[in-house]
Amino acid sequence: MKHGWKRLAVVGALGVASAALAASPAFAKGDISIQATPHTVHVGHVVKVRGQGDDDAAPYTTLVVQERSGKPGHWGHWHAVKQSYDGGVRVDVKATHTGELQFRSVLYETDKHHRHAKTDRVSAPVTVRVVR
Question: Can you tell me the distance from the alpha carbon of 48 to that of 46, in angstroms, rounded to the nearest whole number?
Answer without folding.
Answer: 6
